[in-house]
Each structure stands twice: as C-alpha cells, then as structure tokens.
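Lab notebook, bench 4. The sequencing result for the construct came back, and we need a structural model before the next group meeting so we can plan mutations. Quick request posted to the team channel:

Model the 3D structure of this chain.
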Amino acid sequence: MISKNTLKKYEFRQIENYFDYIEESIINGNFSQVKDLFNKLSKSQKSLCLKYFNCEHKKETLIYLINLI
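Done. Here's the predicted structure in token form:
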C-alpha cells in the first residue's frame, strides 16, 4: 500500500502523481521498476490506477499493467 509518507518520499502530492511516475518508468523502459512500483500498490490502489489510465485514454500503459496482474 502506498501511504502518504511514501508519496512524500517521492515528493508527490497525490496518488495520481505516483501513477504518472509508473507510466514514465514504462516509457523509459524501466520495466523491473514498473513491476516493483505497481506491486507496492494495494488492491484498491491498483484498481484506481487502472481506472486512471483508462480514463486518461492511455491504453498502452493500461494494457501493460493489466499484463502484470
């Protein structure tokens, strides 16, 4: 689970910033980092993450993360 302290560690204000960081890691090819970041999310946060990318019309990121599950 990503807590407020974890968000502060990454200097993020919102969980959406963490989701964007996951996407940047995918774009940069840091796939092991993506897996680690995504696995740190709780079940409900993972669901929120997938909904976030679906609503943002970022299908490539969404598909990649679904394949991690």
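Helices lie at 4-9, 15-27, 31-39, 43-55, 59-68.
Will bring this to the meeting.
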